[in-house]
From TrEMBL:
Entry keyword NADP: yes
Source organism per UniProt: Brumicola pallidula DSM 14239 = ACAM 615
InterPro entries: HMG_CoA_Rdtase, HMG_CoA_Rdtase_cat_sf, HMG_CoA_Rdtase_eu_arc, HMG_CoA_Rdtase_NAD(P)-bd_sf, HMG_CoA_Rdtase_sub-bd_dom_sf
Protein family according to the UniProt entry: Belongs to the HMG-CoA reductase family.
Pfam families linked: HMG-CoA_red
Record-given protein name: hydroxymethylglutaryl-CoA reductase (NADPH)
Amino acid sequence: MSARIPRDSDNDYTHEMAKARRDFVKDKCDASLENVGSYSFDPSVTAGNIENFIGVAQVPIGLAGPLLVNGEHARGEFYVPMATSEGTLVASYNRGMRLLREAGGATVTVVDDAMQRAPVFIFESARQARDFGLWIEVNFEQIKAVAETTTKTGKLRDIEQYAAARMRYLRFNFTTGDAAGQNMVGKATYVACEWIKKNYPDINRYMLSGAMDTDKKHSQLNTLRTRGKRVIAEAIVSSALIEKVMGVSAMALYKARSITQVGNFMAGSTNTGAHSANGITATFIATGQDVANVAESSSAVTYADIDEQGNYYLSITIPSLIVATYGGGTGLPTQQECLKLLGCEGEGKVRKLAEIIGATVLAGELSLMSAVLSGDWVASHDKLGRNGKVQHSSHTRSSGTLERDSDE
């Protein structure tokens, strides 16, 4: 019989139990976990975040900024912690932040806010399912009252309906305060569904999730309807400033966008930008977000324009940015420090964090596209992305441009 991982049913979150499991790994797998076992907090703080705790994954954190944000909740300059193992990433975002700062900052707006659970109700016929949908509309206020008995902060905003065969998919849309809210809305929707089942007798059966809430995966529905925060970051940058910082013209960037839009379309991409997942993932890890939500959160729509004076307008719409400043991993010690660095710890800060991340993503879009056009992209990875070893080549001028400009 295979040996079971050591556990203490009374108190499993202790230094002793963590060590017992590391010793177990050493015995069974002949692997030493000295670095995994080097951490600075009491294991008890991880209860509710992890099971069978053995230590930590230590991802390097770099600092980018200052990032100038003109938001409704985030206003001023911010230094952004970014957790990544990809060389050049922080330097690239740093350079984009410099460009935005000299251009007057990024304007960021949270235009929508909703977290979903989407149960499906099954009937004997499509006609019965249709009639059920009408009943849901009539009884919305009662359903809302029942759902909200399970939460202090969650509010049922509305219920979308989708019909297929003899099924009725209901997409419950909640606002969830400072929490990301997936568990919150799951519990609230379950209670509401049980009340619906009790009060509507013709239901054959229901499932709490019919998959139209699209947890941890992209969907076109979320691109249109929003999941989490819908964030739009935009900026106007003069061609002279782009040439000074990036070494390319505004017209070159504008034309490149039209080409990449076609490429993205042909590839069937869910993202018309360059690499929003990079900035989102790095800030997610640093601030204790559920990193699997990058599958949804990294979807993005970019739009570029250029005016008669040659000024370059760029915006990025992130329709499903799922972030929190309360709950989940945001309460862990390292992540708390990073949230405090951003001024996003405590209540009422989730939209501030969303705006900062939106501006960060915009900075990365400007920097990477410029690097692709100017020749910095490959050369900078040669110099900064080789496990810390400085590479000397005939291309050090262009890679030096990325490093030098990002630090000025």
